[in-house]
Batch of 2 targets.
Target 1
Amino acid sequence: MRSDVRTALPTAREALAAGAALTAGALAAFVLTNPRSRSWAVYASDRELDRWLSSQPTGVVVGVVLAVIAVAGLQRSGSRRTAWVLSALCVIVLAAAHWTVPDVGDIDTLIALHFGKTAAAGVLLGSSVAGSWGARIPQVAVVLGVSATYVLAGVQPPARGDSEYLEPASLSTSAIGEPSWILLGAAFALTLAAAVVASKQFRVQRLDHPTLLVALGGALTLAVANRLLGAWIEDQEFGSQFRVWTVVVVSLAVVLALTVTVARMLPGLDGRFVLATTAVAAGAITVINDLRAPSVSVHPWLALVVGVVAVACGMGLPARSERLRIRQSVLGITVVAVVPLVSVVAPEFGSNGALLVVRLAVLGIGVGLAVGGSIPGAVSVAALALALPFGSLVFAAATTIPLSRVVSLEDLGSAGSNLPHRLAGAAMFATVLACGAALARHRSAVRATSEVPRHEDSGDNPPPETP
């Protein structure tokens, strides 16, 4: 009995790796979260602001691609110690950027600093996934850190409020500000400790060239498509209501088609994770936008606690077979779909206060179920899927541009002020359902892949050899 308890408890090495994975994943996710906002992080001329705003999404998609490239390099190296050392170096780069920002005197330097930060965050995400993947507790920790931060990164007060737009803003490379020194310090200390105690026998998952090529090609294709289509939607801000929604529907259809294609090309059941994180990105965006509203009255710490606990509870549901994992993922996506559905039925319901906290809790449980039931075996697929929500610029543009665009009196008279909110909710609801339907089709492949071992092992023993 005592031996069973000991084997169920994490070792010191696993505990340090889990802490490093949690904090490094959260830090990378925070830096890659850079929403479109009217709360400018800089004070400059119109021409400089145009260049600044254009650089923001471009830097994020660069980070998304670098996450998969970092995993590929670490798979070739094979050393988990190298992965954690690289993570610590990335944290140092992010800390240096944080320290440098107050002394930046021009927009070009700030743009360069932004690209440096997003590149470091992408590598940090990839290295933390590579260092933790294969050990159950650390890999769950990195998924928890990234998923929870994606939803909660914007709950802190923005760098600039709408009521202060005529005054110079505090300088920052992001619309949500710089990461806290506490998070930077914790991530550095834990990644360094994980590097010190890393075992030479416990190697990074072996390089699988076909899977890596699909993951890298998927990251590049989806990142570029989201960047171009997101910009296309933003260009419709002054267009007619019919035109903007036509562009939104076409953009969503293209992104969905590309996502499903990439998921189908991945081996076994690993494509589920790509579909699950895409569904999460679409379903969570309405709550995320409400949490980032300048007028929100929910205390940031309350939102953080509720969101993290909800995601952790959803991920904690045990599922011992592939069939049960698929059912768990489908259940999670169904719960996530409730969030945009509420926006269709009652656009103003739960936009602030206690009901917003309830919506956040429901979303968090759905996110935990969806990602927890679809964790893949291939580390490159994990890096791709965890990075995709931050590059989902089409979802962000589809739920902000139609709501903030200049609306004519004719539009208001014919459609009503709540129609854009209902249409945005319907678009995200349909996207979540499409991802859920594609994921559910994997049920037919469960029997064929049930004999294939998953890439999981303990933190002390090397992973099983594969031919």
Note: The chain has one domain: 11-449.
Target 2
Amino acid sequence: MKMRRTAALAIGVLFALSSCQKSSSVISEEINTQDVPIAVDQGRLVFKNVTTFNKALTALNKGGSLEGIPGKETGFQSLNAALEAFNLQDDAQDKQLEALADFHFTPGQLYLLNSKGEIQIGNEIIWYQNNMKYYISAEKQNELAYFKANPDKVEKKFKAGSKVLPVYENGSGEIAADYFNMGFNAGDARHQYEFVQQTPIVGNRKYVHEVISFFEGYSDSFFYYWATYLTLRIKLEWKGKKWRPASELRNISTNLAGTATVNVPGQGAYFAGPNISFNTAVQANSDYVLLLGQFNGSGTLGTAYWTLNLYGSITHHIAGDVSQNQWTNAGTAQAPLW
């Protein structure tokens, strides 16, 4: 029997705190996750159960960093690392990775899934592909290649993923003037700024500020459940044969406020509080992702959607580049970004 390597997961989480009585602030807090052991089997992370997985996922989605995560020596490569390497190659072609990128996973999922879009929770291997989330018994691991070639043979599966759709207001097809409405698996990248980077190298670049919603279904033995996440992605892209994510180090600062609400026809609107409040300054060489809202529900969805009101500013600048290429993308409460 192959031995599994196990590591303890330590997570430092960045929380955005808000209050009606005083101005919001951002503090760093260490979260003790002694009870989140992670094993590696066949190149994928293995969590003991859903509870331990959700501890890690929730912390990472809120801005956590990993210490003690199994490394390449164990055979594990995160989806995040695989995508970063792939995006640096102008002629690279990998249909599986391209399809996984289109899911627009949350920050936590990018770190916890392997380069094939797999993870094991309890006795089930979960595999993401084809805008679906497939569950395969770990006891049938030897048949995994067969199920991947014949996904229609997988009995337990749910819809998952994201795709870019037109934004709409009250079903009219018009871009929302005050509030931004989007489906549970939609995106909007209305804020883009193209320029020519001057230093340390010269080339066509583009800042992209986009909002993406991610949706996935799941269940226990009795009922259908689902989760939806709303994220802000602050990106830099470079132009080769097509636009690809870039890896230059950037200075990014945000000063944002607003609200996010989940609307489920027949059930009502649910405020995904607390109020959105970010005041951050970071350096990043990949997508900088902020979780704007998360909601877990059950039952049928119908035409459920998010409503977002987000205003403030995002300042974006490649470290060392000329000052003219700095971009501040701003909106007010009266004329919000989204």
Note: Helices lie at 50-61, 79-87, 95-101, 107-112, 144-149.
